[in-house]
């Protein structure tokens, strides 16, 4: 696994930034050439800029920490003027809050939505856990799980940003617990006695796997997380074949 | 739990700094007054400065991130001149590496040594886990577990500092696994099939509890970590009374 290498991370980051800048420029050029007529062209360009800025901010936050996301730093990274970024976001704190919200949307698209394509119950639970591992392993954010990084950065700093990060993590914990509870209610996890406890344990395993993978450049911790989850679900009475399949996935 | 409150964290931090500065001044005054004669007085004063600086650096790193530990920032925090700090540590990276090493020593004093007072096997394993929870809950470092914070800060930044943090976490994981293995070998965890896997799972639970406690200002996650560990140890065949006692401890 070389994606942990700083040079590669920066390269990935720059590549994404390039792609988004291209998108932004194309849209601006289209506007300028009058090939696209918008009811509110200014608003649309603003949205494109926001997207570019927030994607850059999400990657930067996952690598360097959300605290490093400032108007000046992001303007420089996105090749925009400081006043441009300031106009769109107002303050460092507003920019950080918008970064958290954009990361939440990216998480939902990457992890939650694909899992919802699976039937409620054990199948959806396993899809959810599997997608979470993919989200970390595939570096959807250049520095691994955005929320793990943001939480570590802000956990000892009370304020609106910490509250937003905490709210997102609570939301995820609740969703995972509810999904486990559904599986129990459908009779697919008959021995599950505490869905919230299981959700806490699964999140703990996933997050340590995420960190170990980043720290060591190896993916063997995802196997440990899968093994821990599989053994818990087996003890809760889950279908052996489904759990074996989940536990046997290789994360490369 | 109010220790999460920023003002309180800073107060704790300043109080510790004050105590250490007093210690440093006392030692300097003793030297100046000639009441204490040292073979190498300069070296001794350097050691006292180092202690003050590294304690300040450990707290700052746990709250703001190890990346914020720089010669200038620490000189300011410790009320010393930049050149003084630079003379002792040389570079930002050397200072960060010394901070990791000092934090490792503090962890050993707080968690490992007290557990070693208990007999090898299950008793020592439970003491170790219990001390870890105390180390996080009592904010031995102002911003919770130093290594969790440092790992989150450096996991995506290859280099000597990341390697030092990773080495310390590996060392802890190995020690916990060896302790579990001893308990197994003594017949106290007869069903334990994979000590390394159990050590991974326990670390995951402890670290998520640490983060949740910091993030929410509540200690209920320590109860979840205890419950998860207790259920795993019970499944491994541990003595029920010992596990019940461990699981029943209230973390306030």
Low-confidence stretches of chain A: 25-39
Number of strands of chain A: 0
Biggest interface between chains: A-B, 45 and 45 residues
What summary fits the major beta sheet of chain A? none
Instruction: Give me the Rg of chain A, rounded.
Output: 20 Å
Instruction: Give the helix/strand class of chain A.
Output: mainly alpha
Write a structural description.
- Two copies of one chain form a homodimer.
- Chain A starts with 5 loop residues before the first helix and ends with a helix.
- The first copy, chain A, is elongated and about 60 Å long.
- Chain A has helices at 6-33, 41-64, 71-78, 82-89, 92-116, 122-137, 146-154, 160-185, 195-216, 220-235, 240-248.
- Chain A has 252 residues and is mainly alpha-helical.
- Helix content of chain A is 76%, strand content 0%.
- In chain A, helix 2 (41-64) packs across helix 7 (146-154), helix 3 crosses helix 4 and helix 6 packs parallel to helix 9.
- Chain A has eleven helices and no strands.
- Mean pLDDT of chain A is 86; it is low at 25-39.
- Chains A and B meet through helix 2, helix 7, helix 8, helix 9 and helix 10 of A and helix 2, helix 7, helix 8, helix 9 and helix 10 of B.
């Amino acid at each position: 696994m070389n994606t942990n290498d700083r040079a590669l991370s920066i390269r990935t980051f720059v590549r994404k930034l390039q792609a988004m800048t291209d998108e932004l420029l194309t849209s601006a050029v289209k506007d300028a050439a009058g090939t696209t007529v918008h009811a509110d062209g200014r608003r649309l360009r603003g949205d494109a800029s926001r997207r570019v800025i927030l994607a850059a901010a999400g990657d930067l936050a996952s690598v360097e920490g959300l605290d490093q996301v400032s108007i000046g730093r992001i303007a420089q990274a996105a090749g925009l003027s400081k006043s441009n970024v300031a106009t769109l976001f107002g303050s460092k704190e507003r920019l950080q809050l918008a970064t958290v919200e954009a990361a939440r949307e990216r998480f939902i698209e990457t992890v939650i939505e694909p899992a919802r394509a699976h039937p409620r119950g054990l199948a959806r639970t396993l899809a959810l856990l599997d997608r979470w591992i993919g989200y970390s392993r595939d570096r959807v954010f250049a520095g691994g799980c955005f929320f793990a990084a943001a939480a570590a950065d802000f956990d000892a700093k009370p304020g609106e940003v910490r509250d937003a990060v905490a709210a997102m993590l609570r939301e995820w914990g609740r969703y995972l617990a509810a999904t486990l509870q559904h599986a129990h209610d459908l009779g697919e996890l008959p021995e599950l006695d505490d869905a919230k406890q299981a959700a806490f344990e699964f999140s703990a395993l996933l997050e340590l796997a995420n960190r170990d993978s980043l720290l060591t450049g190896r993916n063997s911790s995802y196997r440990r997380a899968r093994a821990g989850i599989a053994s818990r679900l087996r003890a809760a009475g889950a279908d052996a074949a489904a759990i074996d399949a989940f536990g046997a996935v290789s994360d490369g």
